[in-house]
Amino acid sequence: MNTRSKTNNLNNIININNINENIDFDEASKAWRQNKKHIGQGHFKYVCIKKTDTDGTNCGKACYKDSLYCWTHRGCNKKDN
């Protein structure tokens, strides 16, 4: 006998299987790694997001505490980049 909970679980499984999304995992991985530096064995470290004036890339230094910026650029979140 199907109870309401069993029927709902079955419907959820059927709906999950019918999802037809095209996800580009390479693009998603690149986007996820934009503000991170690979430090080995599957570990990553957040890096400063301040754009350099010379070539427009991120600063790349390690972030300061719970900030998006390094020690040098730590005041950038209070003013425009």
End-to-end separation: 63 Å
Helix content: 25-40%
Strand content: 5-15%
Radius of gyration: 22 Å
Overall residue-averaged pLDDT value: 77
Q: Which segments are poorly predicted (pLDDT under 50) over 5 or more consecutive residues? A: none
Sequence of strands across the biggest β-sheet? 1-2
Per DSSP E runs of 2 or more residues, the count of β-strands stands at: 2
Class by helix and strand content?
A: alpha+beta
CA-based shape: elongated
Q: Total number of helical segments?
A: 2
Largest sheet: 2 strands, antiparallel
Give, in order, the helices and strands.
HHEE
How would you portray this structure in words?
The longest helix has 14 residues, at 4-17. This protein has a two-stranded antiparallel sheet. It has a domain at 35-81. The protein has helices at residues 4-17, 25-32, and strands spanning 36-40, 43-46. With 81 residues, the chain is of the alpha+beta class. The protein is elongated. A hairpin with a 2-residue loop joins strand 1 (36-40) and strand 2.
